[in-house]
C-alpha cells in the first residue's frame, strides 16, 4: 500500500468530526487518532485512512482545486448509503450515485468544509 492516510483541512473540527464519524461508521472503522486540532479515521495497519485537521500554520483551511478523496465501497448499495450519509451530515451533492463508465460506479459529494469526496465501486478494468 502506498498511501497511509489523506488529510483534509477544516475550519470547524467538531463539525468535521460529526461528518467523518458517520462516514467511518458506514465503512466499518472509527477514529485512530484524536487530538484537539486533528482527528484521523481508519485502522492502524489497514487500508488508507482519512484525517481532518485545522491547518498547522493557523491560517484558514481552503479547498484544493482538483483534489478529491475517494472511499472504496464494497457494493453499489454502500455507494448510495455513503452518499446519503454525507448529505445528511452537512455534505453537498457533486453528482448522485450512478454508473460513470462500464466498470465504475460512483457518487460525488463535498464535506461541510467543501472538500470533494466520492464513494466508488470498480467492477472491472477501466
Secondary structure elements and pairings:
Layout: E1 5-9, H1 13-26, E2 31-35, E3 38-41, E4 49-53, E5 68-72, H2 76-88, E6 92-101, E7 104-110, E8 116-122
Parallel strand pairs: 1-4, 5-8
Antiparallel strand pairs: 2-3, 3-4, 6-7, 7-8
Helix pairs in contact: 1-2
Q: What general form does the structure show?
A: globular
How large is the count of helical segments?
2
Strand % is 35-45%
Output the strand order for the largest sheet: 1-4-3-2
As for the number of domains, it is: 1
Overall strand count: 8
How much is the average pLDDT?
94
Structure description:
The structure is a single chain. This protein has 126 residues and is an alpha/beta fold. The chain has one domain (5-54, 67-122): 2,3-Dihydroxybiphenyl 1,2-Dioxygenase, domain 1 (Roll), CATH 3.10.180.10. Helices cover 21% and strands 38% of the residues. It has two helices and eight strands. The strands form two sheets. Strands 1-4-3-2 form a four-stranded mixed β-sheet, covered by helices on one side. Strands 5-8-7-6 form a four-stranded mixed β-sheet, covered by helices on one side. The longest helix has 14 residues, at 13-26. The protein is globular and about 45 Å long. The relative contact order is 0.21. The model has no long low-confidence stretch (mean pLDDT 94).
